[in-house]
Amino acid sequence: MSRLTLYDTTLRDGQQTQGVQFSATEKAEIAAMLDALGVDYIEGGWPGANPTDSEFFASAPRTRATMTAFGMTKRAGRSAANDDVLAAVLDAGTRAVCLVGKTHDYHVTEALGIAPDENLTNIADSVAHVVAQGREAIFDAEHFFDGYEANPSYALDCLRAAHDAGARWIVLCDTNGGTLPDRVGEITRLVIDAGIPGERLGIHAHDDTGNAVACSLAAIAAGARQVQGTLNGLGERCGNASLTSLIPTLMLKEPFRSTLTTGITPEALATLTRVSRRLDEILNRAPLRAAPYVGASAFAHKAGLHASAILKAPQTYEHVDPSTVGNARIIPMSNQAGQSNLRARLADAGIKVAPDDPAPARILSTVKDREDQGYAYDSAQASFELLARAELNALPAFFEVERYRVTVERRMNAMGRRISVSEAVVVVRLGDQRVMSVSDSIGANGEDAGPVNALWRALGKDLGSWQSSIDEMTLADFRVRIIGAGTDAVTRVTIDFTDSRGAAWSTVGVSPNIVDSSFEALVDAIRWKLIRDGAA
């Protein structure tokens, strides 16, 4: 079997995603996650390019994976030893250095404004300088596939310049993301035939046509033995090849499973879903439900026919066992559901129902009635489970909400700026104890986060012996939908939650009042969490 090297560039390419900005502390946490997962290289960023990357490299975590600094080949008109930009990259002290260089003659003459031969010299001198410093040199051949289509001879000369200067890896970059998989595979084979060994060749694909993973697999099938990508497919524009899709495909699917090995163990693969969701939590964004392997809907079976088959033989509608990637099967409930869905969902929740028990029919009827009122349980499985438990008299009475109140005030602050302030009061009964909690929704930046945030803070402020379970909950996403029209319209609120253990669940609330809908979903989320934690 051949060894395939996994190169992660989440901390650099991922940071180029619109709306994403890592702190140095967050980069260190992500690096530790990647190292535990088992990738071979972690590209930490570009030292000197911005304060965050410089701070990260100044105290970079020790990793088993090869920590790599990114930069560019030396600039024209100066030697590699006297290029201050290249010097800053080397000063990071990493074991490996990845340098990007132009391989498309159009970019060389138009973007760099230099002669093609001078670019070849810049590539060779830069790589040789890195090697002379005792570092492992990696060359990212920027715009290679476009360059090969325009001038294959020159594009190959750029690769040879890096190869002959001692680069350990030469990475073919589809920088614009427009090359399709068949052509990526074909060109990769032509590069190997031209004398660049596959065991020194890598692939770096962008997802502008939605084919980054397919292009990466095509290059690997053609002989490339390094693949670059990011967690959850982060990256500029449409993103980079997603390692959360590539890793399980390489480990579980033929022909890769029986011909290639990676540094990922089966035990580490089973943490992939948790790693993916933790990254989204750091970014404060909702996980993509339809993400392959790790998405909340990746193993969801809504149709009654599918659910019936899944109960008999999971492989009928599942291409892999969800547990291999740390995910779980979901049998959603909706007005399309039948007895098979219902019984499978109850069994998954640990609820036993006798074959002749009439309760499932009542639950199905209740679900369909409530969906007529605006509820949607196929995307709020936690709320469905609570509904079913209530029908079966199996819903623990952890606490009772006696009342709540929310106020929103619009006023001038001390600096004369108009602001809003939301405050909430929640009164709950914990057995014989009556507890009142009060909270506002002012965030660390001094801005008001709104009435729902104030309610969440007040509700989760003091729930006695269950507080530790509540404190590890994170509100991941909040979605609002108006159902109906005119004066009869109601508001449906669906909220996604995660916790520090990697669990993810969703709840739903419906009311003409958006705050009341939100509060219903918040209460459901806490009750489901306490049941899952085995609270008494």
Automatic annotation (TrEMBL):
It catalyses: pyruvate + acetyl-CoA + H2O = (3R)-citramalate + CoA + H(+). PROSITE patterns: AIPM_HOMOCIT_SYNTH_1, AIPM_HOMOCIT_SYNTH_2, PYR_CT. One of its GO terms (molecular function) is 2-isopropylmalate synthase activity. It holds the Pfam family HMGL-like. Keywords: Amino-acid biosynthesis, Branched-chain amino acid biosynthesis, Isoleucine biosynthesis, Transferase. Its EC number is 2.3.3.21. Pathway: Amino-acid biosynthesis; L-isoleucine biosynthesis; 2-oxobutanoate from pyruvate: step 1/3. Residues 4-270 form the Pyruvate carboxyltransferase domain. Transmembrane segments: none annotated. Belongs to the alpha-IPM synthase/homocitrate synthase family. This is Citramalate synthase. It comes from Paracoccus chinensis. The lineage of its organism: Bacteria, Pseudomonadati, Pseudomonadota, Alphaproteobacteria, Rhodobacterales.
